[in-house]
Amino acid sequence: MHDDYEIVTTESFHDRRPRTLKHNDIFAVFDHSGDMISVAGSSEGLYHRDTRHLSHYYLTINGNVRPILLSSSLRDDNSVLTIDVTNPDIAGESGSTLQNDLLHIRRMRFLSESRLYERMTLTNYQDVPATVSLELHFASDFADLFEVRGATRIRRGERLQPAVGTDSVLLAYTGLDAITRQTRLSFSPAPTALARNQASFRIELEPRKSKVVMVEIDCGAAPAEDEDLPLRKRLVRSYRSAREDLRRSSGRATSLESTNEVLNQSLRRCVADTYMLVTQTEYGLYPYAGIPWYSTVFGRDALITALELLWLDPEIAKGVLRYLAANQADRFDAASDAEPGKILHEVRYGEMAILGEVPFRHYYGSIDSTPLFVMLAGAYLERTNDLETIGALWPNIARALEWIDQFGDRDKDGYVEYGRYTEQGLLNQGWKDSHDSIFHADGTIAKGPIALCEVQGYTYGAWHAAATIMERRGEREPAAVFRRRAEALRKNFDRDFFDEELGTYVLALDGEKKPCRVRSSNAGQVLFTGLALPHRAGRVAECLMDAGSFSGWGIRTIHAAEARYNPMSYHNGSIWPHDNALIGVGLARYGFRAETSRIFEGLFAASTYVDLRRLPELFCGFVKRPANGPTFYPVSCIPQAWSAAAQLSLVQSCLGLSIDAEARRIQFDQPMLPSFVDELKLGRLAVGDEWVDLRLQRSGSKVLVEVLERQGDLKVVTSI
Asked: Of the candidates 365, 372, 456, 375, which has an alpha carbon nearest to the alpha carbon of residue 409?
């Protein structure tokens, strides 16, 4: 696809640790040197709405000489990527040599709306003048994200002839969907030479002096409002706007500071990654799932992320609820697995989705998004007392409840099951959606419709949430009906899903109601919503924390003794931080805070071995070994929203923290600090316009809670 120019490659090109940036619907993946070179299997590039608008973008000096990387780093808030490079020995035009490390180039770049900006500062550290040739190589394949992931297309659209001006190049592609996608590269100052795939600059540098080159890469199809401004002013204005957006969104969140500085760094990264993934939509804030493959709307992921973050920033939950309500299915459509009242699984904007080559344009194939939607609505009301928003959402909540009865319970046996309508839909529609993730004890793949154990827990949670909302609306009789239904489900679930021999809940019931007698992390999520009978919780906790399940880094998706266990698999033995966080909520709910603390300790320890202390989507389930880090899954998304929020959720679980906005009460129930933390401060934990600053300090086996400052009349209650 790029046979019209030569790609300069060296060994260092294949030694890449990715660097990522994101702002709303645009994101970029660079190698560790700050370049993008999309060789086969690489996700590097600049993406906008599921299309790769730039597949190559790299720097050379004086012909095809790659600079030497000094460092690359992200700002703590993820807003700016800075790359420092220098020159190797370079032969000059007159036979002289520019010795290494005399030319410094600082490359500062950021994203704003549909644009990537770069500001390069070249500094000559010689005592004599230097003439430097700088080359920026670029190209766009306009590949659909699913192509980048490996999908093969028989036909593609037409790449248009590049339009080359004096200081800009326009690359364009008209897809089979008749949409023309464009990438405009603009430069200041104007290049000495500009071609369809390269901008060249001849720069004269006086001794100890610097010069600046600026680049704007715009993925927008329409002309920008500020296109008449000089590039320098556009860059400055966009930088301020992007930073202000980030400060405004993340500034609401409760701050955390402990006596463990490494933990502080890890938690700051959690917050920064979460808010980098948060996207402003017309309905409010929405956390996109992850980079590179899932930087879009996902229902399940956002609902769980919002639940994890609800105690810190309920505004995210509000945006998620409003977006998903606005896109709730209102008709049956087999191709998208849509049924009236069902909540979204995924939204895609790329050419393949528009053409129907993949079914994910508006796809509804997840069994758990709908009950999770109702659960989040109830939790949001408790956290905020925002009756106005919940009142506006009530018709959507009611339709979601109807979906559970009419479509979720396919065979009317009292359990919610899934099964796809077409071969293009997802085979498995729980959070473990690999083709082989639901199986029997002998390894045989289960045949549907499948009733997952944790989905029954979500349904139980949804019915209790619905009852709570109804009670606040004055509808006490319907609320009582849902409470009774929830308790009946609890009784029947215990009868059909608990396995005395396994000592835990089975993974699922298959289409013939045969139990999948497999020990899995799914059982831990049964604890998450309170579906488990209290006398079962101890045995479930014991199974989750034994050596076959808990690796030391976290709880594996599948117990090591099971037939399909593979610690390198996606869902059959790996460790997912968000899964562990939800299990941590469940363990704490039943009083097992020490076990929750062990999970927190494992994930925190894993984060200390990761670049930027950034937990990935998942990592391999190998046992923790002394003086060694975890084994990473090769194509894991990083950052991933529900992974970024996992440690923040575990803080809440360890502290036994709950917030009742109607009663204006913050409660700590038997709070515990993990072994690596002696003191933790929570800054501006807010309920409406009121807030408190708190210090939690270990005192022997107990944790003391102290109010440092407050605004308003919030009550802080601690039960030991």
From this structure: 456
Domain boundaries along the sequence of the chain: 11-246, 251-655, 669-719
In b/e form, how buried is each residue of 231-266, taking b as 16+ CB within 10 angstroms? beebbeebbeebbebbeebbeebbbbbbebeebbeb
Q: Which amino acid is at 578?
A: H
Alpha helices per DSSP H over 342-426:
351-355, 369-384, 387-403
Provide the pLDDT for residue 675. Answer: 92
Neighbours of 410 (CB within 10 A): 16
What is the Cα–Cα distance from 65 to 134, expressed in whole angstroms?
10
Residue among 400, 531, 358 at smallest CA distance from 453: 531
Q: How far is CA 453 from CA 55, 286, 498, 522, 632, in A?
A: 43, 28, 10, 7, 28
Asked whether the predicted pLDDT for residue 176 surpasses 50, the reply is: yes
Q: Going by DSSP bridges, is the β-strand pair 665-669/715-719 parallel, antiparallel, or unpaired?
A: parallel
Provide the mean pLDDT of the chain.
Answer: 93
Residue 549 φ then ψ, to 5°: -105, -50
What does pTM read for this prediction?
Answer: 0.94
Q: For the stretch 548-576, what's the b/e string if a residue is b when 16 or more beta carbons lie within 10 angstroms of its beta carbon?
A: bbbbbbbbbbbbbebebbbbebbbbbbbb
The edge-to-edge listing of strands for the beta sheet with 715-719 is 657-660, 665-669, 715-719
Q: What does 605-649 look like in DSSP terms, one character per residue?
A: HHHTTSGGG---S-B--PPP-TT--PPBPTT--SSBHHHHTHHHH
Kindly report, residue by residue over 212-233, the tens digit of the pLDDT.
999 999 998 555 666 778 999 9
Q: Which fold has domain 251-655?
A: Glycosyltransferase (1.50.10)
State pLDDT tens for residues 647-704. Answer: 999 999 999 999 999 999 999 999 999 999 999 999 999 999 999 999 999 998 899 9
Say how far apart CA 654 and CA 656 lie, in whole Å. Answer: 6
Kindly state the average pLDDT of the residues 236-249: 86
pLDDT at 135 over 80: yes
- For residue 9, pLDDT over 50 is answered with no
Q: Is residue 118 a contact partner of residue 108, using CB atoms and an 8 Å limit?
A: yes
- Quick one: tokens of 575? 């460790």
Question: What does the block give as tokens for 526?
Answer: 């049964």
Q: What's the chain's Rg over C-alpha atoms? A: 27
Cα dihedral 111→112→116→122 (10° resolution): -70
Angle among Cα 81, 86, 92 to the nearest 5 degrees reads 140
Strands 45-48 and 36-37: what pairing?
unpaired
Q: Which CATH number fits domain 11-246: 3.40.50.300, 2.70.98.40, 3.30.420.40, 3.30.830.10?
A: 2.70.98.40
pLDDT in tens, 486-531: 999 999 999 999 999 999 999 999 999 999 999 999 999 999 999 9
Q: Using an 8 Å Cβ cutoff, are 141 and 120 in contact?
A: no
Both tokens of 377, joined, read 């609505």
Residue 439 DSSP SS3: strand
Q: What is the DSSP string of 567-586?
A: TTSSSSS-B-HHHHHHHHHH
Give the whole-angstrom CA distance, residue 206 versus residue 599.
57
Q: What angle do CA 216, 288, 115 make, to 5 degrees?
A: 5
Q: Which helix (H) or strand (E) holds 30?
A: strand 26-30
Backbone angles phi, psi at 480, to 5 degrees: -65, -35
pLDDT tens digits, residue range 567-608? 999 999 999 999 999 999 999 999 999 999 999 999 999 999
For residue 18, the model assigns a pLDDT of 84
Residue-wise pLDDT for 326-385, tens only, equals 999 999 999 999 999 999 999 999 999 999 999 999 999 999 999 999 999 999 999 999
